[in-house]
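Technical annex B. To support the medicinal chemistry partners, we prepared a structural model of the target in complex with pyridoxal-5'-phosphate, based solely on the information shown next.
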Amino acid sequence: MFEKLNRLHFANLPTPLEPAEKLAAHLGLKSFLFKRDDLTGLAMGGNKARKLEFELAGVVAGGYDTIITVGGQQSNHARMTAAACRKLGIDIKLVLGGKDFTEFKGNLLLDTLFGADIRYISGSDEDEDLEALQKKWFDELKVEGKKPYALPLGGSTPLGTLGYVKAMEELKSQLPDDKVQIFCPVGSCGTLAGAVLGAALFLPNAKVYGISVSRTKEDIYKRTRELIRESAKLIDVDPDLSKTEFFVYDCYHEEYAKHIKIAMDAGEVCARLEGMIVDQVYTGKAMAGLFDLALTGVLNKEEPVIFLHTGGMPEVFSDTLKFGEYKKCRKYSVEEVQEMKNQ
Ligand SMILES: Cc1ncc(COP(=O)(O)O)c(C=O)c1O
């Protein structure tokens, strides 16, 4: 099915499927598993590694010398695309935006490590604003004689989406039974679209749940269905999508990139029960949505729940906690310790 398409190698696959028994018990579920796509590798891992394997194969084949892509201030897609470009020897330009900043932290700091050229919109990460600046820069690069490739937000193209179709084939090989409930965060919709198409092809009894981090349900259903249609054409399949149930939950969509309390609380539960880190923008919010659906009885408690851990690790380091805000840390002076030694 995928053989006629070019594909590069960025991700360490298969990623592990790890049970989380304490979290399952906490939510009253029979079984909970993390699909560890945060461990794909490529500059600290995440879902973009799978998408870029397909998307950038086309860029290499087309002889492009520069990639110009867009994202929010803490874009994981930007960081991973920058890393991939460096591996390929391609120039990288990033159009980023969001709240103003004075210090480079988290993903933004890593973007500088990869030496990406950055143009930043202070105060907006709206798609239209980022795309307008991307277009202007793209035109400038062409005038300079470059051969730029404009990669859209989140790498969510029909080609990139195939990364998650293939991920479902991989997941099938790790499961004894396809009666499972799969969860993922949803931003630009490529991961969800790939998961739904992949489930239709390889896990026909699975239900897929997408938790929105930024868009309304209506917008997500529309974009996801479009991507599914276009991706299916690339691999010459026409699956019966009416059998694959897919649901979108958008209760927290208005708070993109804000560290909302409900996601922080869900993150704390994961960390303290399972030693698992989730970020606040994507996986923490998806976990909060999953908690809502488990605790309100929407999920089937008997069927395994699989959480696609899509990464986002560097974002965790975009925040700081001031001394005094964490009550379980006590400081000692060197003199106090000297006294202890003298006793
Ligand atoms: C960590 C993480 N999880 C999930 C997503 C959402 O994936 P998609 O944009 O394919 O919907 C992103 C997108 O940037 C991400 O960085």
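Notes passed to the chemistry partners:
Residues 46-47, 76-77, 154, 156, 185-192, 282-283, 310-312 surround pyridoxal-5'-phosphate (CB under 6 Å).
Strands lie at 17-19, 32-35, 66-72, 91-98, 117-122, 148-151, 181-186, 207-212, 245-249, 305-308.
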